[in-house]
Amino acid sequence: MNAPIGLPKRPGASTAGITLDQLEIDNTFAGLPPKFYTRLQPTPLPHPYLVAGSASAAALIGLDPAAFSSPEFVETFSGNAVHPLSRPLAAVYSGHQFGVWAGQLGDGRAILLGDVAAPGQPAPGRLEIQLKGSGQTPYSRMGDGRAVLRSSIREFLCSEAMAALGIPTSRALCVTGSDYQVMREAPETTAVATRMAPSFARFGSFEHWYYNGEHDALKTLADHVIERCYPELRDAPNPYQALLQEVTRRTAQMVAQWQAIGFMHGVMNTDNMSILGITLDYGPFGFMEAFNPAHICNHTDQQGRYAYAMQPQVAHWNCHALGQALLPLIGEVDAVQAALSAFGPAYSEKMDDLLHTKLGLSARLEQDTALFEGLFQTMQASHVDFTQFFRRLADLQVERPEADAPLRDLCIDRAGFDAWALQYRARLKQENSDDRGRCLAMRGVNPKYVLRNYLAQVAIDKAQQKDFSETAKLLSILERPFDEQPENEAYAALPPDWASELEVSCSS
Ligand code: AMP
Ligand code: MG
Fold first, then answer.
1. The Cα angle at residue 112 between residues 100 and 208, in degrees rounded to 5
2. The predicted structure's pLDDT at residue 8
3. Under 8 Å CB-to-CB from 423, ≥6 apart: which residues?
4. Under DSSP, is residue 132 helix (H, G, I), strand (E, B) or coil?
5. What is the per-residue pLDDT across 283-301, written as a single tens digit (0 to 9) for each?
6. Three-state DSSP class for 8?
7. Which of 38, 104, 105 to mutate to test the pocket of ligand 1 (most atoms within 8 A of CB)?
8. Ligand 2 centroid vs 174 CA: distance in angstroms?
9. pTM here?
10. Which is nearest to 291 in space by CA: 267, 314, 262?
11. Looking at ligand 1, which atom is closest to the CA of residue 106?
12. Where in the chain are the domains?
């Protein structure tokens, strides 16, 4: 592992607010053998400008957000100027796409600049910084290496929104844009999104070496990931089995968090699954609105492989694909199976916890499973808005059903709602639930604000006219998803009629 190479600190600089040239950048991944990547420079973006920056993401690496307005910042994060200590590279990986082995993929439009200190973050206490949309690489295949402004804003806002919701995710530092256009369904302007994660290694990074029969490289990668991100597994009797089990557990818990908030990833291919169990590669994602478990958020996913209700089992399938790839290191099929068996319990326990907190229940009773099932049936029968329903549920008062009107009004099937509410009230009485305390607790886990497609679209439409204020405003709202924010009430509204025309696809 390379030691971090430091630039001399400026006198008086505090770690809470360093400037760009004080970032100590290393590239630990570049310490792996050359077959893991291709060293290359980003392709400059003509006349770049800042579209958006996240102060809370900057804080993770101690960067003063005042840096956002400097020309150096825009130059660096558009890929036009490369930090002198950065050793940029594009990594190779493969993957299963829509259940089919797709062979070699790789960073076709992402370039890893290196990793920087992120004090207080989990092991390795560093974050890798990656530019997405910074030009072609040897892994671009037919692609142009670019990302459009639309998808870059979506990834930026969703990464930061998910972090604020408490869901493990890669982070987004900023988006830079350019008037340079590329062709998608129509010509669109391009952008570069800067992402951060402790590691961008994917399930597909491991599958790559397994399917190429390069078990030495497989071991090198697994050792690298364990050493940096899972140091506590180093001394396990079988560290590779422990790795698989921990990734499986984290993935199961992450997907439970997705389900509980109504998040749909859209493209859960193994090349989009993080070895850290964090949400990665935001493309045609969506947040559930009118509740329908079969909802497919990705227009390209005609078969519904990645529909909302499919996400847990697909995540499990993906863990199996990882288990297959790690088999040569783990040794025994039984040991692989044992590690993978962590999925079911981890998912159920997490989901059970989340549903109890979403409903403001303290005790765990056997009958609660039926209560939860009944809840989702009621929500489905009435196609209620997922976010609004849970948020309004917090206002329910045990002894005053007449106060339920705003919640009940969301349901077409009033009788269905009444029947369920009767059970819920009885359950709350059973544990002497206090209305005020429960309301506060429930508001702390059931967000009022999520990144609805139409909200993102309004911000994108304005950004395409060079007005980035709506992107900044939306970010500020989504950074506090559990706060009432009465001044921003409109952002909690149901989608307008025009939003039914919105389609998100793999085009990005
Ligand atoms: P995704 O569906 O975005 O996860 O991408 C799947 C693969 O296609 C990855 O290897 C990407 O790097 C690559 N890719 C997607 N879009 C482009 C593009 N415009 N240029 C080059 N490669 C791309
Ligand atoms: Mg991807």
1. 30
2. 34
3. 371, 374
4. strand
5. 999 999 999 999 999 999 9
6. coil
7. 105
8. 19
9. 0.96
10. 262
11. 10
12. 20-198, 215-352, 359-443
